[in-house]
Design goal:
The protein has about 525 residues and is an alpha/beta fold. The chain has helices at about 1-5, 20-35, 45-55, 75-90, 130-135, 170-185, 205-215, 235-240, 250-260, 265, 285-295, 375-380, 420-430, 465-480, 505-510, and strands spanning about 15, 35-40, 60-65, 70, 75, 95-100, 125-130, 150-155, 165-170, 195, 220, 245-250, 275-280, 300-305, 340, 355-360, 370, 390-395, 405-410, 410-415, 420, 435-445, 450-455, 490. It has an eight-stranded mixed β-sheet with strand order 7-6-3-1-2-8-9-17, sandwiched between helices. A five-stranded parallel β-sheet has the order 11-10-12-13-14, sandwiched between helices. A hairpin with a 3-residue loop joins β22 and β23 (about 450-455). The protein binds adenosine-5'-monophosphate-propyl ester (PRX). Adenosine-5'-monophosphate-propyl ester binds next to α7, β14, β18 and β19.
Length: about 525
């Protein structure tokens, strides 16, 4: 269609940086139809992070929107893309086409701001408005025939060395698994209304906002906004309004909403709900009980779905109506999946016990490689325990055989369901003008689940104070994105070095070789 007229062909990568608008879904499906590999980057990542990802996959076409309102905040998406494209050009790579959805004109901001005309600067010859080119495109487009193992999309996820990994999923296996897990895990029936609150920029958005529901011809809600705007009962207003039957969200959202008075939930008719899903991090029993009692009126099944960007779809989950529930347990494997618990020496733990969560057999949507880096794929996932896919998570098995995922066992942490690497943040600190050294670790957080706690050693006579703290936080926002901002930064006059006298980052890189 319009991408085709821009020269995009089978196997080319298309970078996407979009808010939760219909055009985001349309772009992904358009790419799939012409065999292009979409590489969607969450529109909360900074221009630095976006540039790094565009360069890695060499996407010559980018699709974005001029901007979006997130609550009362204006996200200048096209501006961030412009910055990213400048950074790519400085490294000798030029994005040739940037398609911009004119979105701000069709919405009014919370403050009543309404952009009547397009305000975004456009670069002649490179930037085009979606609204100018799509109406001219033909309404029919013969699909590109794809082999089952041809790539469908790639999606970056954090890596413990700090460099993001381009997880690659294929056409046949991924789609089959997305469709099957969606149908059985949510017990979706024709005419049900399903809603997943995840942003399309993450794997949950790919599999359970776009591909899984659409492969089942499901009716779903696509929501652009936050749970807190215009009021803290926004989720329940929508469930009531559209009579949502399956609702899928993250523990961090549940914990944030639990803070408000129960009446905000109770005043809505939530009787349409049948299945409540949880994803992204372990759900604590208090949040589980609140979800079960207040939102689900003790009559809904809760499916605590454990999976990863790499697994493509749910791998551990209760099945609604079939699995007796335990608050906080991801329970049992989905059909065909074989989880194993291993101890440090790689010995299998049978029966009750706790260890590394690995899988002994592949399933259709297990990622096939890391884009352009098959060696890293093998080292990261298959070397520690030969013969197994290693999740990087720990889990325990109880006496009834239920699996409980306990969290990451590597240098990754999960902030509000966003997986990130401590090394990524540390390397940002190490590049400050005042030559600081940082060490980041993970602290539990009542709402976000986990948060970043950083120790900073400054040199070059920088004074540790409010000004420096602000600069350091700003630096992380610019290097990675606002969601990665540390909660605590502590002055550490000296930080220990490793035996070889190196900093942490260099050692990890070496470990992975
Ligand atoms: O640590 C696990 C946690 O999220 C990680 C995967 O993150 P990501 O690739 O960004 O995908 C998130 C959405 C699927 C896992 O390694 N995680 C995800 N779901 C759960 C979970 N931890 C415990 N219970 C879950 N249900």
């Amino acid at each position: 269609m319009c991408s085709k007229s821009r020269g995009v062909k089978k196997g080319d990568r298309v970078a996407v940086y979009m808010p939760m608008v219909l055009e985001a879904v349309i772009t992904l499906l358009a790419c799939a139809r012409i065999g292009a590999i979409h590489s969607l980057v969450f529109a909360g990542f900074s221009s630095d992070s976006f540039a790094e990802r565009i360069l890695d996959c060499e996407a010559r076409v980018l699709v974005t929107a001029d901007g979006a309102w997130r609550g009362e905040k204006l996200l200048q998406l096209k501006y961030i893309c412009d910055q990213a494209m400048i950074k790519c050009a400085q490294k000798g790579f030029n994005v040739e086409t940037c398609v911009v959805v004119s979105h701000l004109k069709r919405v009014t901001s919370p403050q009543g701001i309404h952009y009547k005309s397009n305000q975004t600067p456009m670069t002649e010859g490179r930037d085009v408005y979606w609204q100018d080119i799509v109406p001219q495109a033909s309404t029919s487009c013969y699909p590109e025939w794809m082999e089952a193992e041809d790539p469908l999309f790639m999606l970056y996820t954090s890596g413990s060395t700090g460099k993001p990994k381009g997880v690659l999923h294929t056409t046949g296996g991924y789609l089959l698994y997305a469709a099957t897990t969606f149908k059985y895990v949510f017990d979706y029936k024709p005419n049900d209304v399903y809603w997943c609150t995840a942003d399309v920029g993450w794997i949950t958005g790919h599999t359970y906002v776009v591909y899984g529901p659409l492969a089942n011809a499901a009716t779903s809600v696509l929501y652009e906004g936050t749970p807190f705007y215009p009021d803290n009962d926004r989720f329940w207003t929508i469930v009531d309004k559209y009579k949502v039957n399956q609702f899928y969200t993250a523990p961090t959202a549940i914990r944030a909403l639990m803070k408000f008075e129960d009446d905000l939930v109770k005043k809505h008719d939530l009787s349409s709900l049948k299945v409540l899903g949880s994803v992204g991090e372990p759900i604590n029993p208090e949040a589980w009980m609140w979800y079960y009692k207040l939102v689900g009126h003790e009559k809904c099944s809760i499916v605590d779905t454990f999976w990863q960007t790499e697994t493509g779809g749910h791998v551990l989950t209760p099945l609604p109506g079939a699995t007796p529930m335990k608050p906080g347990a991801a329970a049992f494997p989905f059909f065909g999946v074989q989880p194993v618990l291993l101890d440090e020496s790689g010995r299998e733990i049978k029966g009750e016990g706790e260890g590394y969560l690995v899988f002994s057999r592949p399933w259709p949507s297990l990622m096939r490689t890391l884009y352009n880096n098959h060696d890293r794929y093998e080292t990261t996932y298959f070397t520690k325990f030969p013969g197994y896919y290693c999740t990087g998570d720990g889990a325990k098995r109880d006496a009834d055989g239920y699996l409980w995922v306990t969290g990451r066992v590597d240098d990754m942490l999960n902030v509000s369901g966003h997986l990130m690497s401590t090394t990524e943040v540390e390397s940002g600190f190490n590049r400050t003008p005042f030559n600081s050294r940082g060490c980041c670790c993970c602290q539990t957080h009542p709402i976000k689940g986990e948060c970043l706690y950083c120790f900073i050693t400054t040199t070059d006579h920088a004074v540790f104070g409010e000004k420096l703290l602000k600069e350091l936080k700003q630096l992380v926002r610019e290097r990675i994105g606002p969601f990665a901002q540390p909660d605590v930064i502590q002055n550490a006059p000296a930080l220990p070095k490793t035996r070889s006298g190196k900093n942490h980052e260099e050692d990890i890189e070496e470990d992975c070789r």
